Protein: Aminopeptidase
Organism: Anopheles albimanus
Amino acid sequence: MMASLCSMILVVTLLSNAKAHITQQLSTSGNNRSQTFVQIEALDYVLPKTSLPISYDLFLDLTDDQFRAYSGTVDVTFRQRVNSSVFAINSAGLSIDEGTLRLVRYDMSRVPIARMEIQPELQIVFIHLSEQLILDEVYIAHLEFEGDINIDFFKGLYRSSYQTENGEKYIATTFFAATYARTVFPCYDEPEYKASFLVKIRHGTKYTALSNMPESHRDEKAAFVETTFRPTPLMSTYLLAFVVSELKTMSSQDELFRVYAPEGREHQTTYAHSIAIRALRALENYFGRQNQMPKIDLAAIPDFAMGAMENWGLITFREDYLLYQPGETTAQAQQSIAAVITHELAHMWFGNEVTPEWWTYVWLNEGFARYFEYYITSQLEPSWSLWEQFIVTNVHSALGQDCHSNNRPMSYDATRPSLLNNLFDYVVYAKSASVIRMIQNVVGFDTFKPALNDYLRSRSYLTTNPRYLYESIEKFRTVDLPASVEKIFESWANAPGYPLVTVTIDWNQRTLKASQKRFWMPNDHDTPPKNELFYVPVNYGFNGMSIEERDKTTPSFWLTPDQPEVSVNIDADVDVIFLNKQQTGYYRVNYDKESWNQLIKTLNDDKFDEHIPVINRAQLVDDVANLARAGIVDYNIALSLMQYLERETEYIPWSTAYNALLHLDRLFSSNSEYKRFESFGRNLTTLVYRETQLQGKLDHLSQLHRDRSLYLACYFGVTACLADTDNILQMAIGNDSLYISKDLQPTVFCAFNKHKIFSGTQYEVELFSKFVQQTAEFRELVDRFILSLGCSRDAARIQFYLDMVHMDNPGLAIPNSLRNHILVSLIKGGPTSRRLALEYVTSNYRSLSDMLQEKQLLSLFEAIGANINSRAEYELLIRIMDANRGLMTGAVADAVQLAISNADETLDWLDKHSIVISKWLVSRNYGDATLPDDNGANIIVQSAILNGAPRSSIEIGPPWYDVNYNDPAYRLGDLSEPMSYNLELDVTNYDFYSYTGTVDILMRFNRPSDSFHLNSAGPVIDKDSISVTGLDGSNRMLLEIIEQYDVEKVLFVFAEGSFVPGTTYRVRMSFSNSIGTELKGLYRSSYKVGNITRYLATTHFEATYARTVFPCYDEPSFKATFAVQIRHRTEYNALSNMPIIEKTQVGDYTVTRFDTTPLMSSYLLAFVISDFETTAQETDRFRVFASAHKVAHTGYALEFLGKSMRTLENFFGRQYQLPKADLIAIPDFAMGAMENWGLITFREQYLIYEEG
């Protein structure tokens, strides 16, 4: 009786929670419609918790060749959780056939259906039954449905397209997060409902179907194909995906990773394939858990709403975040590709395997994925300084947005689908990752890593909420905290915004007082927010601190909700203090005036970079700029601090300064003292331009630097930058494609427009003429050029652009989107372009409103409101509103009112601050005298005279860079030397995208030491694998390994007195790396046999590329013997400098072991893994290898090899030293040939001879 009563209470409670208002709302039952309007409450949007899905059997018919509509069936197996006569399931926009609706018991007996009730607003279908569904019984619901495929809305099931030489191609693809699975098939479309999915897709014969799991069966009919996939693991609906397309891949079907791209672009997937392999391996190592899926497809989709989507086993990407073209893809784009791939792979654990129980906690997905996106990628590409970039792209970005009254917290309750689908913003990405990083620094890495692994293990294939995370961290933490992990973390997760920590230092009493208050950026739309209080971990740095103290980021003290103000003592020898070392805390810091002045004095000292670390210099710039903007700090302090940038050359502070300076420039550009501000900008950027340079080959970070600091240098008119820009334009106009490297385009185009650079002709006329004649080819270049139009200060040039907006010529097809693009860019520019554009809008609003879509008008007025900075511009906006109110839709009128409000706010800000800024610029003697005449045009004329006519050719150096051996930092020195290497490599990765290896080096020390260096530039060394032993077997204790990326070395540090002169030691370590395509180090080459691409792995080590393959003494003076062993796939053969002494085959793999070489330098080592053939015998002294279809043409080379060898032996009176000499023809080769001892590699054309 008691059990029955409890069951009844449970049923009533669940149904009342979920359906209290259902009968009062808009309902549709069959063809009878009744409407009663009442308030819909939050829980009404949530499925009643009366049943639980077990599996889906989903069939979709996508045989419509144009991908406009589809049909399908789904069989949902579910377990009943309570006795109920209603079955509820999500559905939105689908036409469900009520006549075919069935609900059966597990024994296939039917449950009678009374009626189907559709709730469109709730996106739920209620199936009312004539009998009750019984607690714990299993049932199957069968639904048949039809739906439309979206064309211009890239969510749910939608159509994408791309152009090929043969015309337009279509793709049917999906994007289900957060609530779009229900728009494609009826389902339990909430993250807590995990189930297995069996998917079958019927499609046209020319298409291939992909889904989360590998294909299990393909049934080919005359008119269509049915592709069936293996069942998925338990997962939420938003992770289901499928793609039906003609996308191509270079990968084989049995590879773990396959990367798909539109036809003709599949060669651009090799970098993504390589980085995916490396990222997955690093994630698996970190989590101590293997990838869960049998395959992982990455698909490049031309039209995509987000950067990517982590569908389990079929990750879809916007093309720009997957396809990499060497020489074309910018450094920033390459970095984004690597980071986004890593982000999506991290979701396999955070989100896919362990899934939040509701979207309230989506930050557990995205925050950790963003954190590992940076953490893991920074290890894969250490030279990118990505972990440092995290500060600018995440911490600073989040702080800049999280400062308003209407901000929401990380954990945010919402149920309405429209709200759920808008949760994916900075809060769940940048802010959450920043808070996670803060907690990691509080508890320490040694706690954080095992705690995360414990959390993942405990919730594997289950749902989660933050409490489980807190429990795991609490279990492993060893540090003292002012409260529980849960209480600390929840203070950040459950409250919007962040604190401003205000510091007052009494230098006489040697005390520091800190207090917290929520930071708010005042504006006319907001009232001050509630003063949320946080658990704030505070540490501080000071002048003269050691490296250990600089890197120690655990809290020195806490500010808490109970104790929001704290005083601490400071040491007597400290005279400058900065809070938040390495900016590990998610908060801003303000100082008393004297302390700010101390910081400014320190930053303007010649040794500023020794006193304040680079990340904290960036922090100070970001904090002071935003505190001044908020009216908390005087602009005299802000500008005085930013003045230190005159001596700054590091990328991270300049990336921050870029945002701060352009924000000030946008506000101040109409001021009468603006030229003084430009002079200030030129002074700041002159040194960094000289150190970085616009032209020439740069490393990755320098290319990013160029995008930021050098853009500013040209924007503000640095003479050398304008001269270089002119040279680039001259060369561009000299070729038909008007080519300018993508990473230079923003800088060059802005300089061209702002500083009246004409270079003998008008580049824009040439560009737009070609665009009109060949639209597709020049559209991307035109789009990038238009972004810079606002830089223009020349009225005639601006009028040329405005003429294009209203040009109506049948022979000149300018898309309306391009016209709007031009207007918005001019509005976002300087005062001249904005005034002329506003005058144009005032005079032509009627024709613009007919020409442009509503969303384009909204973007136009949004730009106007954000950029107006003078009373004259404001009056033009009022005139537009007053004259055209009757032509505006409600949404456009609202956008204009918001623009007026934003402009008011800017003008109020200028009234408060512009006089202070002007007086500061005058007081520091920034003035017109330093500005190039005519905005820099005279400099360009001088440059053209000095340089003469454009160069007709450019000398191109070798395809590598040489290490500067004159700089002793690059050299290994004579402390130790190698005697022998045992090198074991595993190159079994299909198509040669990555490899692993172990090297065993016998070395001798010439002087006593506790450390040694090896060259290494690229291999990821497994630190746990490193061992160093004496010949007596005694171990040496490794204390630290320091990777010195800038000089391509690794320093191994041991206990004092570890190494004795004249003694031999053995060092052994394992490593892994990707195999590139850059014709150096170990790289992947390929050749075609018909339509089939075949691959080989080969090497080119001269002069300094052995170190990119394995750690070694990579200098020519260090000679040693090499014993090489290579594990490879059996269909390939391995060659190296010496003959093979043993081959062992195990299954699909073969281990090939080579004889030991004589003493030789590392640059002479070589190996090739290929399917090449030779006409010679294995025991022959001389052999020539080539691909099977060219080996017949190696006879001349083989004959000449014998002749030349005999001649040389006679001439020198010495026999050739090795037992064999192999020559091999490589399809892709940087030089003519390379003299690797015993295995000479050639560019094909220098070895293959065909008669005639």
Notes: Residues 3 and 918 are 80 Å apart (CA to CA).
